[in-house]
Amino acid sequence: IIKRGQRKVFWQKQFLTALVFSANFILIFASWWWQKYYYIYLPFISLPLVLNCIMVFMIITYSIKNLVFKPEQIVPATPETMVLVMPCYNETFEECTRSLDSLISQVRIDQHKKAIMIICDGKVRGPGMEKTTAQYLIEDILMGHGTERRSIRAAYRAWDGQTMDIEYVKGIYKGVPFFCIIKQQNQGKRDSLIVSRSFVYNFNRRAERPKVVFAPVFFEAMANWLHNEAEFDMVDVIIGMDADTVFDRDCISHLVTESHYPNTVGVCGYVAVDFLYGNWNLWSIYQSAEYTISQALRRLHQSLVTHKVSCLPGCCQLLKVCEETCGDRVLIDLFGYHPKPLDGIIRRIRATASEDRNHVCLMLMESPRAQTRQALRARAYTDVPHGFRVFLSQRRRWTLGATSNDLMLFTKAHLWHFNWWERIVAFSNVITWLLNPFVIASLGCMIYAFIHIPWWIIVTFASIMIIPLLYYVTMIAWMPRNLLERCQFMLGLCIFTLCGPFINIGVTVYAIWNMDNFSWGKTRTVVAVTGEVEEASADE
Fold it and tell me: Where are the transmembrane segments (predicted)?
């Protein structure tokens, strides 16, 4: 069966590769051979452009409306209780310490009860690390803070159906109760998210004795810690971060404030590049501009207008603990679905790439009235790839995950209950991704065709094309917070405008060529405890 599944994935990859290549080749040839029929190809070029223009207009309109008519917020009488979740895998001592300390040093949340859950995904170490991440946590970072250390066999049922052995340490870290889980095997971040979210949801329902994926002894250990040592009666929100991310001091307070809007079940912050290795590294500056543009256009439109932010990055995220976000239907049945040997390539991609986006898309499809938002003032800083191959490996997962989930939103979301604007944008994203080379080539064809068409058509099209670019330029005034960040963004915007389309083509080609590789690639390369290098794919 496994070999049949591998053959199925192989031939699906060949078919999709041939389809994308053929479609782009035919359309590029036709657009250059029959240039006078440019209006036939215009929709392929103009659809994403028109959608971007509409989003710019709606962002401006809704921003003004919200200034004049303040949206209603519902502030709970009792401050929310929050569990701060930090998954980790092969992060260094410095990364884990910086991330934990940024959680501890948060301001304006003293009135909220807090507890930290750390989930280490296996026992591995990255290149240049003297110890595994698990050893750094237990022996160095949390050493002296722990009050109990224990191992539990078959502690819970992992997302692939196998039982997982764990070791846990609990105690007080700089005044905040913590519970650190060390998984004995690597099952991926998705499994860690299921563990933390399923636990807090069922902790709130513990009086009902719900059916859980945890062994009674493990669930009891976590529940006793949260109830007796952290003094929680129930958990209101989960704050998610990654172990290579650092929060601004007021990040969580802005996430909580944004969550007070009616029907809001999830909030993400603004993810910025952490310039750890110099402020003028061109590769980091390009990625910083790319991050800013994506978060200040489509995601901001989703937050202000449709209230359907389709990706809440796990490195800076708030989720309310409720049926919509953490219930068994979304979390276990859908998000926790493990690919079967005969599943197709697209389903496998959804299950292994962009788990944060996949969870939110599934949630919005299952609960059309649920809303998700973005808090731009909730800043988190994360490291970015510094090499081109690592960048390609990361973007392969991101672009395949985003496109496969957009395809799901367009084809599988409820016809009438799901937001139609988001469905149209999802369709546009899929088409643009498939026809990326043709779209770039068509721009050249359009420029050549402008020589032979009336001037008013040229002016009209140019006026539409420049609207998103002008919007990007205005970001210089309101997105960066100081002169250094403004200069970095201006330089990054120039690189993004001139080189971005060609980089995107390279990412698309790389993603298609490696679409049957379901590993983390270079971004998750580790060195085994024995010293042997573990890589999931030789060509990564």
Answer: 15-34, 40-64, 424-449, 455-478, 490-513
pLDDT of residue 530: 35
Question: Which stretch of DSSP H or E encloses residue 474?
Answer: helix 455-478
H helical segments located in 205-354: 216-224, 251-258, 282-296, 298-301, 323-326, 328, 345-352
What digits encode the pLDDT tens for the residues 393-446?
A: 999 999 999 999 999 999 999 888 899 999 999 999 999 999 988 888 877 777
The band of 539, judged by pLDDT with boundaries at 50, 70 and 90, is very low
State whether the Cα torsion 59-433-408-380 is positive or negative: negative
Q: Are residues 332 and 467 in the same domain?
A: yes
The answer to whether the CB of 102 falls within 8 A of the CB of 119 is no
Average pLDDT in the chain: 91
What's the DSSP call for residue 89?
Answer: S
Given a contact cutoff of 8 angstroms between Cβ atoms, the answer to whether 120 and 182 are in contact is yes
Single pTM value for the model: 0.93
Encode 327-369 in three state secondary structure: CHHHHHHHCCCCCCCCCCHHHHHHHHCCHHHHHHHHHHHHCCC
Total domain count, the chain: 2
Q: CA-to-CA distance for 416 and 505, rounded, in angstroms?
A: 34
CA 17/CA 460 separation, integer angstroms: 36
Please tell me whether residues 406 and 430 are part of one structural domain. Answer: yes
Q: Among 195, 223, 243, which residue terminates a domain?
A: 243
Same domain for 229 and 296?
Answer: no
Q: Which helix (H) or strand (E) holds 151?
A: strand 146-157
Task: Mark whether 181 and 251 lie in a shared domain.
Answer: no
Choose among 390, 327, 383: nearest CA to 359: 327
Q: 530 and 408 in one domain? A: yes
- The C-alpha atoms of residue 285 and residue 273 are separated, in whole angstroms, by 8
Q: What is the mean pLDDT of residues 76-89?
A: 97
Using DSSP, state whether 132 is helix, strand or coil. coil
Return the SS3 of 314: coil
Same domain, 223 and 253: no
Q: What are the C-alpha distances in Å from 105 to residues 102, 174, 177, 382?
A: 5, 10, 14, 17
According to DSSP, the β-strands at 176-183 and 163-173 are: antiparallel
Closest by CA position to 516, among listed 406, 408, 435, 396 = 396
* Burial state string for 125-135 with b = 16 or more CB within 10 A and e = fewer than 16: bbeebebbbbb
Return the sign of the alpha-carbon dihedral for residues 467, 472, 473, 476.
Answer: positive
Q: Which of 243, 269, 288 is the endpoint of a domain?
A: 243
Q: Is 268 in the same domain as 216?
A: no
In angstroms, the CA 41 to CA 30 distance is 9
Over the stretch 155-175, which tens digit does the pLDDT of each residue have? 999 999 999 999 999 999 999
402 and 324 fall within a common domain: yes
